[in-house]
Design a protein that fits this description.
Elements: E1 5-6, E2 19-20, H1 31-74, E3 83-86, E4 94-98, H2 108-135, E5 138-141, E6 151-152, H3 156-166, E7 173-176, H4 179-194, H5 202-211, H6 215-242, H7 244-247, H8 263-272, H9 288-304, E8 310-311
Parallel strand pairs: 1-2
Antiparallel strand pairs: 3-4, 5-7, 6-8
């Protein structure tokens, strides 16, 4: 029987005639491109929120991306240095960062570890930076706030850190966030978005490692939920405007007056797609410890996610 080139990590002793090939090497990197993009992102984030915000947010993003990078290197999966995306007209001054990586992952454990390392590494910094920033934030009465303030939806983890720092501040007061707290909030927001179990997001990789081919249905369910949350209020507003006598009562409920904040993300998720490519060995057992860590990552997603993250 002629030998066939196969890429994988399991069954070599049982298949002595199989030739195992490493994944293809990444093209040569232009380090200056990564450095230039990072320096530009420093400028754009400083311009949006000051140097404290920039230092906090970029530290979280660096930890996230290098978590992926070093774990990929551990499994000998070729990966690039992080590409930062400066975007001065956004709320954060950046659209985040990403690394390029070979799509040929040896097995489910490697896929899980590489995907999970980024959010976990970023959260290790996001939590203490958020607490430090919240401690430096000012508690003010709501009626003293100017009308042009941006209101941020607080995920449960951020709320808990606020309670640790200031206790219960009451319904008539609010926090004016220190730039470092805003950076921590942005880090949690990025963590939650990355943990959405869809396609090529970190959560999509984790979902595929946990559920295999069924991960597609997990992603579709999340997509359908976000779509319903975003589209139903729009349709209701149209009905309220067209048929006020029948549907005017719906305007009393905040749900039917919200802005369609997730539509842009829904378009991106649709373009990304819901199918996930197989690894080199999708039958490789994931193990109970990684399954438990997967459940913990699901909890982290729930604690960092907010359905209404930004209100102008």
């Amino acid at each position: 029987m002629p030998s066939q080139p196969v890429w994988g990590t399991r069954g070599l002793a049982e298949l002595p005639q199989v030739e195992v090939l490493p994944p293809p090497a990444m093209p040569g990197q232009r380090v200056w491109v990564h450095v230039l993009l990072f320096l530009l992102t420093i400028l754009t984030t400083v311009g949006v929120g000051g140097w404290r915000f920039s230092a906090g947010l970029l530290s979280i993003l660096l930890a996230h991306e290098f978590g992926h990078y070093f774990t990929a290197r551990r499994y000998r999966v070729p990966a690039s240095l992080p590409y930062f995306i400066p975007f001065p007209i956004s709320l954060f001054g950046t659209l985040g960062a990403f690394i390029r990586m070979s799509p040929r992952i040896p097995d489910r454990r490697a896929l899980f570890d590489i995907a999970a390392a980024g959010p976990l590494a970023g959260l290790v910094l996001a939590i203490p930076l958020s607490y430090m920033g919240i401690s430096l934030s000012e508690v003010v009465r709501k009626d003293a706030l100017p009308g042009n303030m941006i209101t941020l939806g607080e995920p449960l983890l951020f709320q808990y850190l606020g309670w640790l720092a200031h206790g219960s501040i009451g319904k008539d007061a609010d926090l004016v966030l220190h730039p470092l707290a805003f950076a921590g909030w942005a880090g949690m927001f990025v963590t939650a978005l990355n943990l959405l179990p869809v396609g090529q997001l970190d959560g999509g990789h984790i979902s595929h490692a946990l559920f295999g081919g069924k991960s597609r249905w997990v992603g579709l369910s999340i997509f359908a939920g976000l779509a319903a949350y975003s589209v139903v209020p729009i349709l209701a507003q149209l009905l309220i405007a067209a048929l006020p006598d029948w549907f005017g009562g719906l305007s009393r409920y905040p749900f039917f007056n919200q802005e369609p904040s997730w539509l842009f993300l829904l378009v991106l998720l649709w373009l990304i797609g819901f199918r996930h490519p197989r690894t080199g060995d999708d039958d490789f057992p994931l193990g109970s410890s990684r399954q438990a860590l997967g459940a913990l990552l699901g909890l982290i997603f729930a604690l960092c996610f907010s359905l209404d993250p930004i209100k102008f």
